[in-house]
Amino acid sequence: MKTSIAFALAFTALALLAVAPLILPEYWTGVLLGMTGYVTLATAWALFSGPTRYVSLATVAFFGVGAYTVAVLNEVLPYPLVLLCAAGIGMIMALVVGLSTLRLAGVYFVIFTFGLAELVRQTVSWWEVNVTYTMGRYVFLPFEGHHIYWQLLALAAITFLIAWAIGRSRIGLALKALGDDETVAAHAGIDVTRIKLFLFVVSSTIITLVGAIQAPRWTYIEPSIVFNPTVSFMTLIMALLGGAMRLWGPLVGAVPLFLLFEWLSGRFPDHFSIILGALFILIVFVMPNGVLAKIDDLRKGRQS
């Protein structure tokens, strides 16, 4: 019964969000577009990093690859095929990276993923300068802001459905054991490496598609735009604020933080990075498990 009510409420909210661009001014459509993008990124990030507790800073590597795939192929392939190519490239890249590195843990994995994002950015920059003799790409597709927003909204809905389905599956049960103690989970017969690889590939493919869908928004892209490390840090902070272990946690964290970041970047553009770092430290110290977990703890405290 509760599941049916939750689905009904979610469907109603999705329908309202879908018609919002037909009512709202163009500026607020742009805000919704950016917000939906980060909700999807944070939810996809939490698919892997939430249950495994592997903190990934490779978000922008996959995001940028998706955007650049659209920039390179948009003039030679139909748009749906371009998105399929972007998803395929993201999937293959995630498989290679996952098979190579998912045996790492802790700070080593964090350092590797941060280095991966920089490696991909530098590789793309080198290719553009030395092979194609350019430093950017134009993306001419017949999409306005609301078209991009609707695509992101559909991807966000699919991402939530995937997260919900995984949580209710046998993989979800295995993830609970894996998150508590990976060694114990392995001794219990759980194929830890395969589960981590599966989640990493699903998460990275979705992140790649977010970058691909948003590429037409910029018209002109270059490595400094689509491989901006701020994307990785903002995604991480949003997921942690809401609670990466909860289905709705990334949404709860992404919406207020995106609005706050929009205001801060407009009012304090020179100090935005400092404020971003301070917020990250505050969240880690005050609410390490997220807002939703904090609310649950307060409820339990009142009941006792």
TrEMBL record:
How does this protein sit in the membrane? Multi-pass membrane protein
Q: Name one GO molecular function term.
A: branched-chain amino acid transmembrane transporter activity
Supply the alphabetized keyword list: Cell membrane, Membrane, Transmembrane, Transmembrane helix
Q: Where are the transmembrane segments?
A: 31-48, 55-73, 79-99, 106-127, 147-166, 197-215, 221-241, 248-266, 272-292
Task: Decide whether keyword Transmembrane is in the record.
Answer: yes
Where would one find coiled-coil regions in this protein?
A: none
Q: Does the keyword Phosphoprotein apply?
A: no
Primary location: membrane
Which InterPro entries would you find in this protein's record?
Answer: ABC_transp_permease, LivM-like
Q: Which GO terms describe its cellular component?
A: plasma membrane
Tell me where in or outside the cell this protein is found: Cell membrane
> Would you tell me the protein name for this molecule?
Amino acid/amide ABC transporter membrane protein 2 (HAAT family)
Origin species, per record, is Pacificibacter maritimus
Instruction: Give the organism's phylogenetic lineage.
Output: Bacteria, Pseudomonadati, Pseudomonadota, Alphaproteobacteria, Rhodobacterales
